[in-house]
Amino acid sequence: MSVAVTIETIEKRFENFPALRGVSLDIQPGELVALLGPSGSGKTTLLRLIAGLEEADRGRVLFGETDTRDLSLRERRIGFVFQQYALFKTMNVADNIAFGLRSRPRGERPGASEIGRRVKELLELVQLPGLEKRYPSQLSGGQRQRVALARALAIEPRVLLLDEPFGALDAKVRKDLRAWLRELHGRTGHTTVFVTHDQEEALELADRVAILNEGRIEQVGSADDVYDHPATPFVCEFLGEVNKLPVKVVGSQAFFGDRPVLGGLAQNQGGPASLYVRPQHLRIVDETPLALPGTVEHLRRNGPLRRAEVAVDGLKKRLDVDLASQVAPAIGERVRLRITHGNLFAAA
Amino acid sequence: MVGIAAAWAVAKFEFRGKNLLISLIDLPFSVSPVISGLVFVLLFGAQGYFGPWLQAHDIKIVFALPGLILATVFVTFPFVARELIPHMQSLGSADEEAALTLGASPWRTFFTITLPNVKWSLFYGVLLCNARAMGEFGAVAVVSGKIRGETNTMPLHVEILYNEYMGPAAFAVASLLAGLALVTLVLKTLLEWHYGDAIAASRRH
Ligand SMILES: Nc1ncnc2c1ncn2[C@@H]1O[C@H](COP(=O)(O)OP(=O)(O)OP(=O)(O)O)[C@@H](O)[C@H]1O
Ligand SMILES: [Mg+2]
C-alpha cells in the first residue's frame, strides 16, 4: 500500500520569487521523513507539490514508477493534514472522516454501514472513540489534529503528508502527540512526509531529516548524521545552539590566534576556517595542551542544564558552556576550556 | 447566480483582469439606475449596438421580459457578489483543497464545502438582492416600456396607476410592496442575528 516517493530536481517560482530551487529527495516505502527548515524555506510548497495542489515549473514527482503528472488528485491517494487542520466546520466528526469514502465514484463507494464501521475504527485508532457527533468547534486543538489525521487515513492513502501537525499546540500536548504519531506510524507503516520547524521534533520523530533553506535541501540524513556531521554551517546552526570560533588550520591542528585549540584533524584543509562547537562539547579543564583560557562572566539555568558564559580574549561573543555535572565556577573565575568535538567549515 | 460565480472567481483565483472584474461589480453601485437602463436600451434596442443582430435572430430584449431580468440582474448582482467575496476570501481555500485531496470532484467540493460555508452570506445577499429588485425603478422603467401585465414590475405598476389617477389601486399595490419590504426587513434582521452567530462560531476556530 505504501509507495516510494521520488522527487526529481523540482523548481518552483511564485511570480519572480524562487520558492524551490532544484530539490531532489528519495523517500523509501514506509519511511517517515521530516522536512525541517526555517519559516519561508519552502517546506509547505514542497509538500503541496507532492500532493498535487501545486504544479512544478521543472522536475517531477514519482510515486513508485508512476509520474504523478499523469494522476488526478483522487488517483494520487494522498492523506494531507493541513497546517490549520481545515476540518469541515459544517459537518460533525463522523461526516468529516467519512467524507473521503463518500466521495469515491459510485462503484467503489462502501455502503453506509461499512462507512460507519470504518469511522468507528478510525476514531479508535486516533484514540477519540465516541466523538462522532461533535462538531470541530467543540474539540480541543489536539483532538482536531487527530480527527484531521483520521480523515486523511480514511481513504487508505499511499502517502501521508503532514504540514506542521503540532504547530498550533502547547508543548506538553506536542510531546504526547509526537510519541503517539511515532507509534501510529510503526503500526500503519505509511510513507510519511512531515513538515516542522522544530528541530527537536524532527530529530526525535523521523527516520530521516531533510533540512531546507531558501528553497534548497542542505542535507538529508538520519538524526545522528545531521546532528553530528552537519554538511553546512546552516545545518549546524539550525539544529541547535553552537559557538563559532574563527580559526586557522595548519597541519592537523586548528589555531585560535596563535593558540592550538583542536587537534587530530584528518582533513588536509589548510587555511582560515570557522570552528563550530556546541555548548555540550566545551569542558572546563584543569590543564591540557589544547585549551582556551577565558573568564566566567555569567551563569544561568536552562531547564535541567546549567550554563556558563565565558569571555575569551579576541572573541566578541561569549562562549556558551554546558556544565554537565561539574562544580559550577564562580563568576569572574579564570577557566580553561577544552573542545571535545567541533565541526570545521572552510571560511567563505 | 451571476453573483455567486463572480464572487467565487474573485475569491478563489488570481487572474489577469481581476481588478477590472471587481470594478465591474461595483459599477452598478456608482451608476445611476436610469443611466444603466439607457445603456441597455442603447446596446440592445432597435437602433442599438446589438440591435440589428438581435432583430435578425428575432430576439426581443428591450421592452420585453429578458430586458427586465437583465436590468434587474445588473443592479442587484453586486449585492450577492459583495456579500460573498469577503466571506469566501476569509475561508481561504484550505477546506476546498482538503476535499479535493480526499478525492471529491470539483462539483462535489463546491456543493458540499464551499456553498454550506457561505450559506449565510448567500441568503443575506439574495435577500438584499430581492429588496433591491422590488424597489428598483429607474433602470427597469427605461428598459421595460411598461407594457401592462407583460413587462411590468410592482414599483412600475404603482407609478402607472398613480398617473392614471387610480389612487386607491396605486395605494393598494404600494402597501403590498411595503408589506413585502417589511417581511424582507424582518428576514434580514433574523438573518443578521444568525449570521452574527455564524461569524462568532468561525472566530472560535
Ligand atoms: N501562493 C504563493 N504566492 C506567492 N508566494 C508564495 C506563495 N506560497 C508561498 N510563497 C512564498 O514561497 C516561500 C516558501 O513558502 P512556504 O509556505 O513553502 O514556506 P514554509 O517553509 O512552509 O514556511 P512556514 O514555516 O512559515 O510555514 C515563501 O517566501 C512564501 O512567501
Ligand atoms: Mg508552511
From TrEMBL, chain A:
Cross-referenced SMART domains: AAA
This protein's record includes keyword Transmembrane helix: no
Protein name: Sulfate/molybdate ABC transporter ATP-binding protein
Family note: Belongs to the ABC transporter superfamily.
Record keyword Zinc present: no
Highest taxon in the source lineage: Bacteria
Gene3D superfamilies the UniProt entry points to: P-loop containing nucleotide triphosphate hydrolases (3.40.50.300)
GO molecular function annotations of the record: ATP binding
Family matches, as PANTHER family: SPERMIDINE/PUTRESCINE IMPORT ATP-BINDING PROTEIN POTA, SPERMIDINE_PUTRESCINE IMPORT ATP-BINDING PROTEIN POTA
ABC transporter domain span: 5-239
Keywords linked to the UniProt accession: ATP-binding, Nucleotide-binding, Sulfate transport, Translocase, Transport
Coiled-coil ranges per UniProt: none
Organism: Bosea minatitlanensis
Pfam short name (any one): ABC_tran
